[in-house]
Design goal:
This protein has 225 residues and is mostly helical. The protein has helices at 2-16, 23-30, 34-37, 44-66, 68-71, 89-107, 123-138, 143-166, 176-180, 189-193, 195-198, 204-221. It has two domains: 1-42, Homeodomain-like (Arc Repressor Mutant, subunit A), CATH 1.10.10; 49-221, Orthogonal Bundle (Tetracycline Repressor, domain 2).
Length: 225
C-alpha cells in the first residue's frame, strides 16, 4: 500500500504540480480517507520523503538503460565529444546517472525539485546515494572529500536539469536583447560586452556535455596519489 500511495502522490505532482500534493488529495486518488493513509505514511513530511525515494529508485534503472557501455553512445550523450574519451567505468557510470537525471526531470518536472530541497532519508533512497558515493570512491577521490564531491556533482546535475525543464534557461517574456536594452550600456557593461554570445541560441545538450567534461577534469585532479 505504501508504494501505491507514493505513486499516487507522484502522479498528482505530475498532473497538477507539487503544491497540489496533500494527504487528502492522495487519499482521494487511492480511494481512502486521509486518516487511512497514516498507518502507511505517517505525515506529509514522510510522504514527501517517500517521493524522493521513488524518484531516486526510478533514476537508477534510467541510468542503467543509458549506460554507454551497453548502448554504445559516447559518455557525454549521443553527440559524442570529449566527455566520451577515456572510458573509465566510474566516469561512464557518473555520466549515465547525469543523463538519467535530465530524463527524470523531464518526466517529473514538478516533483523533481524535491531532490533539491529534501535529503535522502529512507532506506531505499540511501541505497541510491550509497551507489553514487561508491562511484566517486571508484574515481579515486579521497574518502574525506567524497561527501563534498557528491554535493557538488548532484547540485550541478539536478540544478541544471530542474532549470532546463522548469523554465530558468528559457527565453522568458523578453529576448536577451530586449532585457538588455531596458538599461544603458553604462549600467549593464558586462551584458553589452557579452551581447553577441548572450544572443546566441544555446545547445543545452552540448553545454551539458562540456560542463561534465570540466567536472571530470576536477575529479581527476582530486584522485588519491
Amino acid at each position: 500500500m505504501r508504494q501505491t500511495i507514493l505513486a499516487a502522490a507522484l502522479a498528482i505532482a505530475d498532473e497538477r504540480g507539487l503544491e497540489a500534493v496533500s494527504m487528502r488529495a492522495v487519499g482521494l486518488k487511492v480511494g481512502l480517507s486521509a486518516m487511512a493513509l497514516y498507518p502507511h505514511v505517517s505525515s506529509k513530511d514522510a510522504l514527501l520523503d517517500g517521493m524522493v525515494e521513488l524518484l531516486l529508485t526510478e533514476l537508477v534503472p534510467l541510468a542503467d538503460a543509458h549506460h554507454p557501455a551497453e548502448d554504445g553512445e559516447a559518455a557525454g550523450g549521443a553527440s559524442g565529444g570529449a566527455v566520451g574519451d577515456g572510458g573509465e567505468e566510474w566516469w561512464l557510470r557518473l555520466v549515465a546517472l547525469a543523463q538519467a537525471a535530465r530524463k527524470l526531470a523531464g518526466k517529473h518536472p514538478s516533483a523533481f525539485t524535491l531532490l533539491l530541497s529534501r535529503p535522502s532519508v529512507t532506506p531505499e533512497a540511501l541505497r541510491a546515494t550509497d551507489a553514487l558515493y561508491q562511484t566517486i570512491l571508484d574515481a579515486g577521490v579521497p574518502d574525506d572529500q567524497v561527501a563534498r564531491v557528491e554535493r557538488l556533482l548532484s547540485t550541478f546535475v539536478m540544478g541544471f536539469a530542474a532549470s532546463e525543464v522548469n523554465g530558468r534557461f528559457g527565453r522568458g517574456t523578453l529576448t536577451p536583447t530586449s532585457r538588455r536594452t531596458q538599461l544603458a550600456p553604462a549600467q549593464l557593461p558586462a551584458h553589452y560586452r557579452l551581447a553577441p554570445h548572450l544572443d546566441d541560441e544555446i545547445d543545452f545538450n552540448a553545454e551539458f556535455e562540456a560542463d561534465l567534461a570540466d567536472l571530470r577534469v576536477l575529479l581527476e585532479s582530486m584522485r588519491r596519489k
